[in-house]
Structure formats: C-alpha cells, structure tokens
Amino acid sequence: MSPTSQLSPVLAQGGDIPAPHIEYGQIGPLLLVLGIAVAGVLVEAFVGRTWRYAVQVPVAFLGLAGAFVWTVLLGWRDDPHHVAAQGALGVDGPTLFIQGTILILALVSLLLIAERGNGRSGGLVGGHFAAQASALPGSEAEQRSTAAGITQTEVFPLMMFAVGGMMMFPAANDLLTMFVALEVMSLPLYLLCGLARRRRLLSQEAAVKYFLLGAFSSAFFLYGTALLYGYAGSVRLSDISAQVSKDAGSETLLLAGVALLSVGLLFKLGGVPFHMWKPDVYQGAPTPITALMASCTVVAAFGGILRVYYVGFETLKWDWRPYMWGVAILTMVVGAIIAITQSDIKRMLAYSSIAHAGFLLMGVVATSRDGLSSTMFYLVAYGFTSIGAFAVVTMVRDAGGEAGHLSRWAGLGKRSPVVAGVFSFFLLAFAGIPLTSGFTGKFAVFKAAVEGGATPLVVVGVISSAVAAFFYVKVIVVMFFSEPEADGPVVVAGPATAAAVALGATATVVLGVIPQPVLDLAGHATTHMFVR
C-alpha cells in the first residue's frame, strides 16, 4: 500500500498525519553535504568578506571528506540493500559506490575551485571566478571590484548544493525524487558556468545556453514522468517495472514515457543527438567547473541512467536496447570525428567526453552485472583523468588568461617538459593505451558488451577509439615537435592545482597498473544490486 493510500483514511477521520519515517543514518552522507551547503549560505550572510574564503574552503573540504568516510562505513559495516525516506531513496551497493565516486572526485575538483594562485604573469590572482557576478563585463563596477581584490566565495555553497543533487540522483527510487535531484544538481551549475573571471561574455553565453537547453530537457523528463504515471499509476520505479511485467497498461503511454524520460537523462550525459550544449558550455565555463562537470556530473548522470534502466525498465530491455544501441554508436562516432576538427583544447576535451559517454553506454546495453560493474569502474577511471587534464589546462596561461587555442601550446614540451609530459599521459589514457586506467576501463566495458551480445557495438567502439587516438596524438605532436612561440604561454601552477594534477596522474597510473582492487570493489557493489 502506498503512503498516499495510507493517509486517506486518517485525513477522512480528521486524525493526525503520521510523521514520515526517515532513516537518517542511511542517508547521512547526502544530508551532510546539503547541510554544509546551507551552512555555506549562512557564512556568506554573516561572516565578513575578508574571512569568508578562509571559512568556506575548510568547511567544504571537511563536509565532502566526512560524507565520503560515512559512505565508506555504510558500505563496509552494513548490508547495503535498504530503502529510505519512505521509499524515495535507495541505499544499495551501486548507489554507495557511485556516491563515493562523486565525493572523491568532488574533493579533487574542489582543489581547483579553491585555487587562488600567485601574482606572476598570467597568474590566478583572485582565482578563476569573477570578482563580482552582478557586475556587467567591462563595466566600471567590474573594474573596481577586480582592483579591490574581491574574491568570489559563494561558489562553494553552490558547488555543495550541486554535489548534493548529484548524490541524490542515482539514489532516487521514484521519478519525482529524481526530478528534484536533477534540478538541485543543475541549477547551481547554471550559475557557476557564468562566473568566469576572464572572457566573461563567453562564460555568460555558456551559462544561458546551458540553462535554456537544460530547462528544455527537464521538461521532457517531467512530461515522460507524467506519461509513465498515467501508465502505471505510480512514479515508483519498482511499481512501473511491476506494471510492465503484467503488461496491464497502454503501450503507447509506456513507450512514449520511456522515450521522453530518456531525452532528459541523455541530455545530462551529453549523448548524441542531445550533446549540442556540451562543447559550448565546457569552453565557456570556468575550467574548474568544467572539470567538476566532466567528472562528477557524468558519474551522477550514469548513476541515474543505470537505476532507471536496471530497476524501472529492466523487463522492457528488448524495447529500449535497440535505440540505446543507436545512441551509443552515434555518440562514439560523432564525438571522435568532430573532435578531430577542433582547435580549442577545451572543446576538443568536450567532444572527447562525448565519445567516452558512448563507450560507457555499452555497459548499459550489456544489461548484466558485469556491465554494471565495468561501467562503475570506467566512471572512476575517467573521472580522475578528466580532472587531471582540465587542471593542466588551467596552468597554461598567457596575458589573456588560459591559452585555449591549440596553436598556443606549440613547443610546450620544450618550455615545460613536465607539464607537457603529464598532459600527454592523460591524453594517452583517454586514448586507451595499455598500462593506463583508460585501457582497463575500455577493456572491461568492451568485455561486458561482448558477453551481453553486443559485439557489433564493440567493433564500432574499437574503430572510434582508433579515430580518437588521432587527435590525442595531434596535441602531443604540437607540444613536442613544434617550435615554441616567442610570446608563448607560461605555466602557472598554484599548490592546489599541482595537487589535483598529481592526484589525477597517480589514480590514472594505479588504475592502469593494479586495477584489480577497484574492479573487485565494483564487482562487490553489484552483489547488492539496485534495491527496488
């Protein structure tokens, strides 16, 4: 019996409404992150401007670290197979693994967001974010706030709200909770994308595009939810699955609802043909926010997709697998081919992210325990490599800020061989070269797809990987086999950025050389499959 039907007699008799039972211990990490976000808002309201940065940064770090430790303890001590908050949230093995991945990647991303740099040429004085978001680009107000050394600190509570939404998204056990999580995750990101300190018009354009297309995709998601409610009489994923098994409703409502819901999910992922926002937003957003989106948002989006298709639509897989095949093929091919034509580093990495989303979708198509565990491992590996790559992008700077155009990277291997070498290593990991995390992740996903009967999809994936290797190698050739320009960019590395690069490189090496512990952890998480 649903909670609504239980309430009806009570309301009819005029009795007290029973308080909902909330398992605070099971959803503690999520509540902690959202609580720290609220605390960050209070810090903005009551702490003086000169002290806000010194308060916000440790509070955010402690909140994320505490939530990560709590998540580990939940997976370690308990049998993670619970429903919480009146069935709205699922606490199970895959959810805890994905939430832990989001938290650890958010911690590394926070190093980039918190960077305030030094005063050298092209440096990061004041950080990556606009001194005053309300000031018009190029206006006198912006010049005054920049000259005064004002630093943006509301980015920290905004980030924490976004991370809270990301954690809720893969845990949502019904579609309305998932929609709320989608908005909690997306709305702060719309704001954060428009806060770049330099090239503010490009940043604000990216924010507007992301907002408009994001609102459009949210409408599709909500309309799909309404149609599925009309089919099943419930928005609970388990109830929808049960109705599909009975074949008791209108097939038109069901298939239309699944299609519209998939649009909203695939948009957040950046799957073709719903990828149009990704290159523009990745290019225009402050690079630390781009790193956060390329890692944590992708993990959260895939967590939501896995829960919807593995719990709600598992019995419908013969209907949705064919179009998921088509989306995966288009995403891999379009991402790899268009990336070749890009001359901007961040746009190239955006199309690379699109191609990797196609590789990850093969794990979804596999519809097996191996497909689930290989996808989760791939998310960890790709997340660390992405943050490391974007961290390097923030370090290569000229008088106008980050040196985004590929031609400006010419000869970087001679100017700064260590930085160029580390970036080359990240690119080779994206390409899937052996002894990197990218190779292990692709091998695991390809193996699961073959075992799931999707061998033609794997052939397309291998060809797309070969095509993608071309533009990765092209960047390496430009850095090491071109002469540096006289007015070429300089490398500016603050301590926090250097730490983020080191963590990304270390994870990329470890997950490539000794991946078995994380593979075993992902496999163990799938023994407690998504709770219904």
TrEMBL record:
What does the record give as the reaction this protein catalyses?
Answer: a quinone + NADH + 5 H(+)(in) = a quinol + NAD(+) + 4 H(+)(out)
Q: Which GO terms describe its molecular function?
A: NADH dehydrogenase (quinone) (non-electrogenic) activity; NADH dehydrogenase (ubiquinone) activity; quinone binding
Recorded E.C. number(s)? Answer: 7.1.1.-
Q: Name one GO biological process term.
A: ATP synthesis coupled electron transport
Q: Its membrane topology, per UniProt?
A: Multi-pass membrane protein
CC per GO annotation: endomembrane system; plasma membrane
Q: Does the keyword Transmembrane helix apply?
A: yes
Q: Where is the NADH:quinone oxidoreductase/Mrp antiporter transmembrane domain?
A: 172-466
Q: Which residue ranges does UniProt annotate as crossing the membrane?
A: 27-47, 59-76, 96-114, 155-172, 178-196, 208-232, 252-277, 289-310, 322-341, 348-369, 375-396, 417-437, 457-481, 490-514
Give the record's keywords alphabetically.
Cell membrane, Membrane, NAD, Oxidoreductase, Quinone, Translocase, Transmembrane, Transmembrane helix, Transport
Cellular localization per UniProt: Cell membrane; Endomembrane system; Membrane
What task does this protein carry out?
NDH-1 shuttles electrons from NADH, via FMN and iron-sulfur (Fe-S) centers, to quinones in the respiratory chain. The immediate electron acceptor for the enzyme in this species is believed to be a menaquinone. Couples the redox reaction to proton translocation (for every two electrons transferred, four hydrogen ions are translocated across the cytoplasmic membrane), and thus conserves the redox energy in a proton gradient.
Please state which protein family the record places this protein in: Belongs to the complex I subunit 2 family.
Task: Quote the subunit structure annotation.
Answer: NDH-1 is composed of 14 different subunits. Subunits NuoA, H, J, K, L, M, N constitute the membrane sector of the complex.
Task: Identify the NCBIfam families for this entry.
Answer: NDH_I_N (TIGR01770), PRK05777.1-4 (NF004441)
Record's protein name: NADH-quinone oxidoreductase subunit N
Source organism: Actinomadura montaniterrae
